[in-house]
Amino acid sequence: MYTNIFDRLSFLSLFLVITLSPFFFLPFTNIPVETSKGLLLVAGLAVCVICWGLARFFDGKINFPRSASLLAGGGIALAFLLSALFAKDSSVSFFGTMLDLGTFWFIFSVFLLMLMSSIILGNPKKAKIVLFGAILSGGVVLIFQTAHLFLPSILSLGILVSKTDNLLGSWNALGIFAGFSALMSLLVVEFFHTTRTEKLILQVLTVFFMAMIAAVNFQFVWELLGIFALIIFVYKISITFKEKTAESVVDAAGLEAPKTRFPTFSFVIIMITLLFFMSGDFIGGILPDRLGVQNTEIGPSLTATMGVTKAALKEDPVFGIGPNKFNIVWAMHKPAVINTTPFWNVSFNSGSGTLPTFASTTGYLGVLAWLIFFILFIVSGVKSIFSSVKHGSNWETMAFFVLSFYLFVSSFFYSGGSVMLLLAFSFAGIFIGLSASQRQQGEVSISYLNDHRKSFFSILLIVVMVIASAAVSFRYMERLVSVSYFGQAVTAQNIPDAEAAISRALALFQNDLYLRTYAQIYLLKLDSLAAKDATSLSDEDKASLQSSLDQAVRGAQLATTSNSQNYLNFQTLGSVYQRLATLGVKDTYDKAIEAYKTALTLNPLNPGLKLDMANVSIASKKIQEAKDYANAALALKPDYIDAFVVLSQIAKSEGDNAGALSYAQKALSIAPTNTDLIKYVDSLKNPASSATKKK
């Protein structure tokens, strides 16, 4: 009895993780959507593993699929573990801020999800329940996002502010998910036994999914969906040619299956995708324009990502720099041409796609692990497709392979967030379980009731899994609360509230992002106190001033210790020392320069760091050094307006008005509508009139 109850609970928790993940989030909180989904993944998996472990404790046996693909998936998790262990500042690679997508713990979680899906959901009945639940989930997302497009303020729920804010993360990620949902409906309509009403509902849903794709108008989705629809079309045609019965066939359950007909639905979808792909924005831009949807996503191109990956693998060939460190890899190896774009100072956390991002951080070991997994997975999937054609059955197996493959392909070309990878691994697990159940000796069974040694180690393993799952869930809840406090800190309306919130966040969990924010908050507090008249400062104000000074330095220093590879931490430390120098604190100019130089070794093509050093040099009366740093900034970014302004101000301070004017005019030629620059140039052209105005 207990076994049956716990097995039902493990199935339910796994089902909820898969079906709720697309639209699960915590409204009216400071917790990001991605973090909310991490909570669902961790909590759902913990309940699933605990209940499954208890069920195995009572029935005395463990069954799991005999699958090379499953072992290869474990190889991916192992590669991430080794890469994280050998990484510098390994906590970033293991956990990140909050079970970040690129961390070992996220990859381990989705592998565990795949494993449990293969064990628990690896039969046709449960697989169908999950598939129909996933379609329903897609419908819920569609309905909500459609309503949100027309009522963005009413349905913001405290998190979704703009029209393009959605439950999947990025706007393009929503388009990929809509394509995935359309593909699910298409597969069910073409291959599964359904009533006329069910088929009609699925067809209507597919139309709505296609409408959402059109609203997003992400060309990649049209391409991907069109290719998969074409494969399904050809696949269905091949089955038609093999059909021996003209009117109908009877399946093993005694149910009449519909006569195999021309796959009209697939053909229509192919035509629609082809129309939108070929027309570009001529037709594809109509619906976004009517809805008033403007979406501009920035990120490294595939070429830039591959270039960065190649450079990173040269430096750390075996284990890589460590999971969850693409921003560090990007800062170190980004192409010089990026400085000619408006995004020169953007710190990208992912590359062009999720999988290429992993390749750049986990070394050749990670690349090899993914390659082995995909080879085995694709070979197994192709075999299942040919088997379905031959025997006219096993549609569930074929469907879950196609769907998971769609998500893996999309993850290669686009960084779509955690939901895409979560669904990819869970559907792959179901495919593995279904494939194993159709083979003789497709399962490995371990019975330990009659063997004392097996019993001891098996029960020990189950107990460890249960305890570990509960412990991880508890720790995740702590971090979830810390994220909430951090959100309160960055949105606080005053310094005391921000100070209190960031302190609470750090009490629960420390990372370099929190510590940088801690330092910046105390810098603001320091500035507010320093702005007061020195004679009006009370003893309490003076004590607070000294405390703020100490806390700002402490926070910045701890940030560099927490993550010594992130240039932002050293840039923050440099800015703290630079501010202290202006307050007359001794030896801080040199410390500021030293911090900026360290930041520059981690981000060698960043002109902003050179300019920071120029400003420090100006403040410390080292004018020639300031000129050298400003010119070095221009060498990295020839259209750097701020560098021209700094050089202009230096020339002006030296009495070289012509030189000052020349630099200022160069800056104005880059930004001719900048009102501040226009006024500055006018003041240099007419110094007398400017002086009169000042009087």
Architecture overview:
With 695 residues, the protein is mainly alpha-helical. Among the domains are: 95 residues, Serine Threonine Protein Phosphatase 5, Tetratricopeptide repeat (Alpha Horseshoe); 90 residues, Serine Threonine Protein Phosphatase 5, Tetratricopeptide repeat (Alpha Horseshoe), CATH 1.25.40. Helix content is 73%, strand content 2%. It has a two-stranded antiparallel ribbon. Strands 2-3 form a two-stranded antiparallel ribbon. A hairpin with a 5-residue loop joins β2 and β3. α3 runs antiparallel to α15. About 2% of the residues have low confidence.
Helical percent range?
A: over 70%
CATH class assignment of the domain at 510-604: Mainly Alpha
Mean pLDDT: 88
CATH topology type of the domain at 510-604: Serine Threonine Protein Phosphatase 5, Tetratricopeptide repeat
Task: Characterize the biggest β-sheet.
Answer: 2 strands, antiparallel
DSSP helical segment count: 29
Structural category is mainly alpha
Q: In which order are the strands of the major sheet placed? A: 1-4
| Unreliable runs | 244-258
Radius of gyration: 30 Å
- Which CATH architecture of the domain at 510-604 would you pick? Alpha Horseshoe
Shape: globular
Amino- and carboxy-terminal Cα gap: 92 Å
Please indicate the percent range of residues in DSSP E strands (runs of 2 or more).
under 5%
Total count of strands: 4
